[in-house]
Amino acid sequence: MKKFLSLLKNHNAWRQNCVNLIASENVMSPFCESLYVSDLMHRYAEGLPFERYYQGLKYVDEIESLAEEKFKEHFGANFVDIRPISGTSANMAVFSALAERGDPILTLGIQGGSHVSHEKAGAAGILGFKSFDLGFDGESMMIDLEKSEKKIIEIKPKFIVIGGSVILFPQPVKELRKICDQVGAKIIYDAAHVFGLITAGFFQNPLEEGVDIITSSTHKTFPGPQGGIILGNIEKDLQRKIQGKVFPGVLSNHHLHRIPPLYFALEEMEQFGKDYVSQILKNSKALAKELNNLGFAVLGKEKGWTESHQVVVNVEKQGRGDFVAKKLEEANIILNKNIIPKDSKNPENPTGIRLGVQEMTRYGMKEEEMKKIAELIKKVILDKEDIEIIKDEVIEFRKKFQEINYCLKEN
Q1: Do 391 and 350 share a structural domain?
Q2: Are 354 and 226 contained in the same domain?
Q3: For FRET with 286, which of 52, 192, 299, 360 sits at 20 to 30 Å CA-CA?
């Protein structure tokens, strides 16, 4: 028992001494964290509000309904389901509502940045779909509309999925909408990584531009509890079908203790999101530019490297992604190896790394700190300086950034 508790204590202390650049992570505010632990964590609420299979939920029904209405109002959506417990379970529910086993779908493909749940190895494969790749331009890091149009017209997919794990620039939703309408294909926008940017009114508004459904997680650029969400402006029959796929389709209980911090994470984004996301975008640009200036091959250069929280770098010359990520971890700089368009589909040792600035931005870092982070990365990877010395430098640097910003304060 002591060893277990010691490991947990060590982890918490260590991560407070790290520069975290994992693009799929963030931290909740202390206020939202305080709401995470409640009696709700012990309860079950199978079904929809006011249509439950269990008793004891008269307050839960109201809480869940208020949260759904808040998201509907904010996004101008006629349908919201906050029950998925991850972005993947949100995708599973929506995918299975829109297509049957053997149906064709089109995604960006792993090299184009799609999430594994879009692919044969993940949810799409489990559901038995025939998955094909849209056209993707690895130089611009953008969807190739000409190639994509040919594939959509030829394959006639039940739906296409855009967005996913690597998304540097807004997607060409309006153009894809016109193409998909020719074959009756739905458009799903997996906004897991950019949901916070969208929430704050940056990046793009997928629903206004023509997507049918947004799926997302709620803990990346949107700084809420780990979980998933589905939003859309869709007909009632499809709404009910998706709801049925959520429960009893892909989950039973939906982890009720997520809902209060989810509600207030949206409140925080409504109050502080524009300042927070504006700084995220400044920081990602600053980090990408400085890495480029220091000699790294940052992708997306012709379009200004990035318009999201992410920065993607080709580190083939520096030892490939696995080596670089592990070496930086030794210096308390945390990021992940990542497939990039030039790679094969084998994810074990790709040539890229992916960085995200959203968590460090929430801890108060700005452009000058991004330049410092780029310099630290250079010292480790290009200059091959002593890891222990750089680790000490990282720890000292991180000491100044321990307070979470852009958030509600506890009463």
Answers
A1: yes
A2: no
A3: 192
- Domain-located, residue 17: no
CATH number at 336 reads 3.90.1150.10
Q: Which two tokens stand for residue 394?
A: 């990282």
* Domain total in the chain: 2
Picking from 212, 236, 264, the residue at the C-terminal end of a domain is 264
Q: Is residue 410 part of a domain?
A: no
Question: Mind listing the pLDDT tens digit for each residue in 48-82?
Answer: 999 999 999 999 999 999 999 999 999 999 999 99
Domain membership of residue 84 as a residue range: 30-264
**pLDDT digits over 153-201, tens only?**
999 999 999 999 999 999 999 999 999 999 999 999 999 999 999 999 9
Amino acid in the structure at residue 158: K
Half-sphere exposure of 387 (CA within 13 A, CB side): 10
